[in-house]
Each structure stands twice: as C-alpha cells, then as structure tokens.
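pasting for ref
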Amino acid sequence: MRLTDALARRPVVLDGGLSNQLEAAGHDLGDALWSARLLADAPGAVEAAHRAYYEAGADVAITASYQATYEGFARHGIDAARTTELLRLSVELARRAGAGAGRDVWVAASAGPYGAMLADGSEYRGRYGRTVDELERFHRPRLETLAAAAPDVLALETAPDTDEARALLRAVRGLGVPAWLSYSVAGGYTRAGQPLAEAFALAADADEVIAVGVNCCDPRDADTAVALAARITGKPVVVYPNSGEQWDAEARAWRGPARFTAGRVAGWRAAGARLIGGCCRVGPTAIAEVAAELAREAGRGGPEGPGQIADARPEHGVDLRGRRLQG
C-alpha cells in the first residue's frame, strides 16, 4: 500500500530520534557529520536502530541522511561518488530494517536544512545569508539522489524559515516522489521569526507535498501548530516534536524537563495530524506508547471511526520536534 493511501485510511506512526537510539547503543556521534558518519562507518548500527523503531510499532522510518550532504561529506574527504552511494544506502538500510515487520511499513528519506551541514546550530536560526536560489541549488542534488533510491516519501524537515521552505519546495518539483514539509518552531513562529500561518501557506498548493507540519520543537508548540497547519493548508499534518528538553550548545547538554507524552497524541490526531512520532530524545519506548494510543483511539472509534476514510481538511469538520539529533 502506498503511504498516501494509508494516510487516507488512518494515522500512521513515525519513528523517534535516530541519534539518541544510536548513542544508547554506544556510538559516539560527536563529530560534525553526526549520525550520517555511521552510514560509512557502521551501517549495521543504523539498520538496527531503524529496526528497533519498527519493532516498537513505528510505521515509518526516517533515514540517517538528515546531515548527509555532498558539501558536508566533501569536508571530510568523501567524494561525490561515495556520497551518492551513502545517500542511497540510507534508504536501503531503512528498507532492509522493515523487511521483516510483517505489515506495511514505509521509508522517509530525510533532507535536513542547510544549517545542519554547517553543524553550528544555525538550522535553529535560519537566515543564513543565502538566497532562495542558492539554497535550492544546495538541496537539489541530494534530493535527486535520494529520490532515485525510491523512498516512499521525502522528509523535508526541520526547516527554520520560509526561505528554506521555498527552496525545498522548488527542489522537489519533478522528482516523482511525494514529500512532507515540517518546520522547527518556537511558539507561533518559525525559528527565524516568521508567522507560522505564512510558513504553512507556502505548501498549500504544492502538489508534491502530502503533509505539512512541525518537528524538533517543544511538544507544547506542536499542540497549537497542528491545528493551524491543517486549517491553512487543507493537507494532512505531520508532527514529531522532541522531548521538550532544551539543547545547551555551549555546554553540549540537555536542560529542563521532558514533556513528550503519548497523552498528547489524541489532541494532535483530533486537530488533523496523520503522521505522528517523535524527534530528539524520543526513543522506542515512547514510540511504542504512541502506537498503543493510536490503536486505542481506533478501537474506540476515534474521530474517523474504525476503518473509515476521513477527509483531513478542517473545513469538513474533521475532529480529527536544541538541534536535530536525527542526523
């Protein structure tokens, strides 16, 4: 079954933070390539991390290509041909991990923002001093390579501002693979300070985009962003916030309480979310709880009712994720 068909039938469960799962398995992700380094150094570990999320109940695995770019790998002496191999491998590893799931599962090929390649936290500020055209030229080669590896969807994720979103939306045109667009947000604004209504509207008429939403943000910000994305775009909403802890870049440590709980899932679903999971520091245990909550909702009838197809557009009355560590 295609992912788009599944979304018309029911919400699907995304995975959680890939890097925290790799770190829990003992891998050091302290360099600029983050978890993308393991595509070359320990691909089996990446596959195992994906498998842990599938086994926890995730329907969609997001690949280890968030921080994998031609420019970023070149800085570490990896040439373009090898980078192409590694990008394709990221999709293959996620696909391989789900082969024994015994149910329909899907692969989302991650494309993080320009700032992720810089590895200086600027993906949480945006406004890099690059034009939309320059950003499009940066993103297009990687997206072409990922699309050629035949993922089910391209995850255009953690966009910090509308310039990056415009570039990404241009860059996916004509690739023949659907995409979702998700912003990292703070309150009702992108990380760069633009109103979310303006940011979400950019994707409303993009035929390639099958879902719009937020990731790697505080779960409390996701609570309000989901309904806004559904109302502005009329599309299914994707939501995968982080744990709610804050990344202290200077201390390289997480601060504050964790706020991600499965108790928020029903509200996100009711507001229009159809792809629901977690980001940084949300692990397999939490994803299992998300999957269980969605199963309970379906068993109770939920907003759509068991097995019923829902229109995700709010005008039809449907009741229907510091830095990105996924890498």
